[in-house]
């Protein structure tokens, strides 16, 4: 299987399957001399880790990361530092239950990648979805922790802003609330409403979609390049590569189609610090594919989990019509744990953009 690597100067290759012995990543292109310890990575993996509430899969994975290469420590370094060589990160799988998937070995789950994988490769790891499982994203979160070291001056935060038809009220937006509920929700009132709503979805054996918003503050102007290296294009590709993501928008995104030219224009003045001051941010911090210095805002839509208990009509690999329901442990809303994954992808793209910008213009 090809195309498991992304990035140009900051390159990430992920490996492993949902029910294999381990998964992980190799990060190449990380500058030397950056402080990097297991604890720096583990903190972000713990945000994504399954089984932390009744609203996520009950698969019990500690997601403990091991740094296998690319880091060195002695009495002169003041702790582990990157060496500039490839950093290999490994996360062992410890709570697989492959038997839960025996009944769908030959049948395709509607809405899942089962059929597409079989049609392309002629072989499919049906145990938890194999490489198509959201379990793969743990490796991305680990890589994102390394990327944050490269762009240490950039603050990257994510939030869940919609579950099903229920949106947050932006007048109540409080970043401090994101860590106070199981949804990464910035609106405490919406978080309480989502509990009742998602309990109903979960108990019915169904699932629901969601929208995630990622914001990066502190990125300097000039990152990204026209015409085929646009920052927003690379962000969109990175977010679309996340399992179950079906749409991405930058800034106002699709809502910009409803605006007039006057409304959409992010007017400018000179700030007291001698730098341009934008009076709005409809563009989401990117113009012409290049960062403007404003917050970079990306949203993506996550479809409902395809593994549900409600019988659905399908076919099997032999062409026979049948019905399918999926047992096992699954997220009723996979969008919840996509929040730290989106943050990680933002970090990886920005680290790559920063290094390329530095390489071109100094």
Q: How do the strands and helices of this protein lay out in sequence?
A:
Blueprint: E1 5-6, E2 11-16, E3 22-28, H1 38-48, E4 65-67, E5 71-72, E6 81-82, E7 87-92, H2 114-121, H3 137-150, E8 155-163, E9 166-167, H4 188-203, E10 210-217, H5 231-240, E11 245-250, H6 261-264, E12 268-270, E13 276-278, E14 286-287, E15 290-291, E16 296-302, E17 312-315, E18 321-324, H7 338-361
Written description of the protein model:
By secondary structure, this protein is an alpha+beta fold. The protein has helices at 38-48, 114-121, 137-150, 188-203, 231-240, 261-264, 338-361; strands at residues 5-6, 11-16, 22-28, 65-67, 71-72, 81-82, 87-92, 155-163, 166-167, 210-217, 245-250, 268-270, 276-278, 286-287, 290-291, 296-302, 312-315, 321-324. A five-stranded antiparallel β-sheet has the order 1-2-3-7-4, covered by helices on one side. The chain has a five-stranded antiparallel β-sheet with strand order 9-8-10-16-11. Strand 5 (71-72) and strand 6 form a beta hairpin.
Strand order of the largest sheet: 1-2-3-7-4
Q: From N to C, what is the helix and strand string?
A: EEEHEEEEHHEEHEHEHEEEEEEEH
Mean pLDDT: 92
Helix content: 10-25%
Describe the global form.
Answer: globular
Helical run tally: 7
Determine the N-to-C terminus distance: 36 Å
Rg over alpha carbons: 21 Å
Structural class: alpha+beta
For the biggest sheet, the summary is:
5 strands, antiparallel
Strand count: 18
| Poorly predicted runs of 5 or more residues | none
* Portion in strands: 15-25%
């Amino acid at each position: 299987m090809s195309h498991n690597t992304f990035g140009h100067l900051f390159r990430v290759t992920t490996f492993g399957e949902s029910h294999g012995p381990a998964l992980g990543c190799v990060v190449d292109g990380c500058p030397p001399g950056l402080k990097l310890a297991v604890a720096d990575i583990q903190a972000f993996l713990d945000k994504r880790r399954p089984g932390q509430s009744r609203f996520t899969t009950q698969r019990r994975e500690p997601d403990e990361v091991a740094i296998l290469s690319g880091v060195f420590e002695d009495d002169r370094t003041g702790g582990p530092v990157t060496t500039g060589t490839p950093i290999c990160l490994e996360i062992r799988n410890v709570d697989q239950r492959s038997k839960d998937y025996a009944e769908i070995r030959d049948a395709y789950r509607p809405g899942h990648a089962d059929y597409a994988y079989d049609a392309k490769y002629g072989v499919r790891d049906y145990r938890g979805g194999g490489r198509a499982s959201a379990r793969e994203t743990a490796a991305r979160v680990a890589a994102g922790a390394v990327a944050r070291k490269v762009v240490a001056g950039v603050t990257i935060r994510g939030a869940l802003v919609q579950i099903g038809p229920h949106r947050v009220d932006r007048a109540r937006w409080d970043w401090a609330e994101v860590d106070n509920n199981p949804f990464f929700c910035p609106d405490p009132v919406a978080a309480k409403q989502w509990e009742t709503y998602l309990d109903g979805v979960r108990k019915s054996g169904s699932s629901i979609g969601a929208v995630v918003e990622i914001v990066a503050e502190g990125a300097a102007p000039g990152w990204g390049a026209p015409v085929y290296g646009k920052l927003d294009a690379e962000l969109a590709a990175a977010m679309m590569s996340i399992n179950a993501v079906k749409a991405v928008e930058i800034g106002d995104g699709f809502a910009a189609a409803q605006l007039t030219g006057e409304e959409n224009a992010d007017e400018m003045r000179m700030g007291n610090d001698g730098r341009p001051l934008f009076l709005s941010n409809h563009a989401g911090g990117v113009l012409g594919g290049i960062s403007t210095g404003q917050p970079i805002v990306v949203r993506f839509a996550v479809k409902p989990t395809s593994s549900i208990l409600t019988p659905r009509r399908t076919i099997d690999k032999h062409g026979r019509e049948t019905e399918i329901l999926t047992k096992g442990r699954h997220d009723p809303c996979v969008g919840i744990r996509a929040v730290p994954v989106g943050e990680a992808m933002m970090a990886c793209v920005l680290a790559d953009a920063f290094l390329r910008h530095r390489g071109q213009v100094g």
